[in-house]
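can u do me a favor
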């Protein structure tokens, strides 16, 4: 590799929806839904033909996940016990679509922070866990809205979409096929969360992030060198969503929860923690980095307990909030955007030469590591 094709992160951007739902609001609405459901099905429950639904609890949610609130694109229908799903007017073909709109907002911040003229951007990757439609690609719409002359495409690797996008962008730069690539992750997770499922109704939140990956030679003075990237996938059914173009029934009916997010949370926890910890340590060593010397870990934001265990195994001691910051409390799990939000909000204070890790993990299973060092 020569000095001319070294990938760096020039800047990041974040779009946060204005609406937020606290655990109290969420549990209040869920429990009203449970009461209504149980009252309507009282005879069947009494006769032993149906099971009564159990209420949710704020104490459980915070203890099990670390989540206290989440942002959403729309709040009222999600909290309406008769709806329990987001609702919005379908946009016309001549209007900017919702994922593109929030992706563009995050991208603009990254471009502005880097002082990058859109004429110098070569490609847009829209990397997210769900796409609003199959085609034309969201990335191409974002590219057009930003006025970029180049190419774009969508990629979906569930919660690891953003880190897989960063490696893909970095590889374009390493290969000399592009100098400036935007990796945009609009995650409207409220659309694939089953708000009626007690086991998971508290998990997700909506957001969009953008990462501008560029060749070092054109990057602004303040940037992060990408020291190395590593991706891994191992097939698992423990996080799954069967919605797709071959099954076009509405996903929101109570009868087909498999057309929304479903998971075996315990198994995910148990299987993913050792896989990711081992991947980080092995890759750090391959890059001649001491894992214990990593100044900060921007980990995937799914569960505070998972992050505690992974950080402990990597650093060799219990990580402080400074070493492994969380955004779970206010954002919840934002799928692939989580580790990028953590990096965006908690990297400004690091010093030149500090080394850190952006790391994602989730459905697939999939995991991605991006080792970075602050250049200036
Ligand atoms: N309110 C109150 N109690 C609840 C509840 C809720 N909303 N949801 C589940 N419970 C109960 C369960 O019924 C169970 O009761 P029991 O012990 O009497 O059977 C108990 O709480 C424990 O449930 P469990 O599902 O085992 O909880 P958990 O401690 O594993 O936490 C997760 C659940 C989802 C927070 C956790 O497993 C997790 O985060 N896993 C990893 C998820 C992940 O990273 N996914 C990736 C997605 S991208």
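np, heres the sequence
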């Amino acid at each position: 590799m020569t000095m001319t094709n070294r990938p760096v992160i020039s800047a990041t951007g974040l779009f946060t929806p204005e609406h937020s739902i606290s655990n109290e609001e969420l549990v209040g609405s869920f429990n009203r839904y449970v009461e209504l459901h149980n009252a309507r099905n009282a005879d069947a429950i009494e006769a032993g033909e149906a099971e009564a639904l159990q209420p949710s609890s704020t104490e459980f949610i915070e203890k099990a996940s670390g989540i206290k609130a989440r942002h959403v694109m729309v709040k009222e229908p999600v909290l309406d016990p008769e709806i329990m799903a987001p609702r919005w007017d379908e946009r016309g073909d001549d209007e900017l679509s919702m994922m593109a709109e929030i992706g563009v907002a995050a991208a603009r911040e990254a471009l502005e922070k880097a002082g990058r003229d859109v004429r110098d951007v070569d490609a847009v990757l829209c990397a997210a866990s769900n796409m609003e439609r199959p085609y034309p690609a969201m990335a191409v719409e974002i590219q057009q809205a930003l006025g970029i002359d180049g190419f774009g495409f969508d990629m979906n690797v569930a919660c690891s979409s953003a880190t897989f996008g960063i490696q893909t962008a970095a590889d374009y730069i390493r290969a000399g096929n592009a100098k400036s690539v935007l990796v945009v992750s609009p995650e409207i997770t409220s659309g694939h969360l089953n708000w009626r499922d007690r086991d998971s109704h508290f998990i997700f939140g909506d957001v969009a992030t953008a990462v501008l990956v560029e060749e070092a030679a054109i990057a602004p003075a303040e940037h992060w060198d990408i020291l190395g990237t590593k991706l891994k996938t191992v097939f698992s059914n423990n996080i799954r969503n069967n919605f797709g173009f071959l099954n076009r029934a509405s996903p929101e009916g109570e009868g087909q929860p498999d057309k929304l997010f479903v998971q075996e949370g315990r198994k995910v926890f148990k299987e993913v923690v050792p896989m990711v910890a081992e991947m980080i340590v092995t890759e750090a060593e391959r890059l001649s980095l001491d894992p214990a010397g990593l100044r900060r870990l921007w980990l995937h934001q799914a569960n505070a307990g998972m992050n505690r265990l992974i950080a402990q195994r990597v650093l060799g001691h219990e990580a402080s909030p400074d070493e492994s910051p969380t955004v779970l409390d206010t954002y919840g799990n934002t799928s692939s955007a989580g580790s990028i939000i953590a990096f965006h909000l908690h990297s400004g204070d690091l010093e030149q030469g500090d080394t850190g890790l952006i790391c994602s993990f989730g459905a697939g299973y999939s995991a991605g590591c991006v080792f970075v060092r602050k250049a200036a």
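The two ends are 22 Å apart (CA to CA). hope that helps!!
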